[in-house]
């Protein structure tokens, strides 16, 4: 077994905790009751969205309102996808493309930049990191006009490139990955790999990436959800086009003098399903990333 392979396996191991681990305390009835109430409050809006999405206009006018799902979900969904001025099916495809590309780019560039700030020594690193952190204090709305002008000069306004390009790397992602790498990748591990003859990219690929996998899951989910739910910038740059994102399409469903809420919430429910799938797939890695990010090696 080569030394770099051994180092990679060491990098995948969890940070050791000093001292004896505390004994787990069994949760009481009050804890489970509190969790159940919290879950009901969190899940009720999604359930109510589904109830409206499966109901008719007559059911919505009833008092008290219906709390049991109806049988009109497919009918309402067919109406949403058949509207000629909303392009809902295309908007879902566009959202998948934008969110996937942005998430993949953020995971690569932010982890690479975080590794550079955490473990490489170069002139001006502290000043650059301070600049990255300071950009987090600037609201995105302040750059909308300048961003629109830049995208116009590039000829990208009205295309998905204008939605994808501004999100390819984020200051939060760089800062988060830098902090996680500092806490979970020992300096000795990196130096041992260098002595073994590993290049910087080899260390990044074989040691850093396997170690920060939980953090990548957390950042990936946060980025995917934020990109999928982004509304302001896609609305501005894709205004008047035939290929909006899902949030813009839902806004189009809710526009007009008379809003058909069963259509709006049917579309909103379908647009929420990919987020629930992402949470279901990456839930375990997310919890692991949060727990390991709080432990210093």
How would you describe this protein?
By secondary structure, the chain is an all-alpha fold. It has a single domain (3-11, 28-293), classed as MetI-like (MetI-like fold, Orthogonal Bundle). 70% of the residues lie in helices and 0% in strands. The chain has 15 helices and no strands. The protein has helices at residues 3-12, 29-53, 57-60, 73-82, 88-119, 125-135, 144-154, 160-164, 171-184, 187-195, 200-211, 213-229, 232-237, 246-253, 261-293. The model is unreliable at 10-21 (pLDDT under 50). It is a multi-pass membrane protein. It is found in: Cell membrane. This is Sugar ABC transporter permease. The chain crosses the membrane at residues 29-50, 86-116, 128-150, 156-176, 203-228, 260-281.
The CATH superfamily turns out to be MetI-like
Average predicted local confidence, pLDDT: 84
| Overall number of structural domains | 1
N- to C-terminal distance: 25 Å
Helical proportion?
55-70%
Spans of at least 5 consecutive residues with low confidence: 10-21
Please tell me how large the radius of gyration is: 24 Å
Q: Summarize the biggest pleated sheet.
A: none
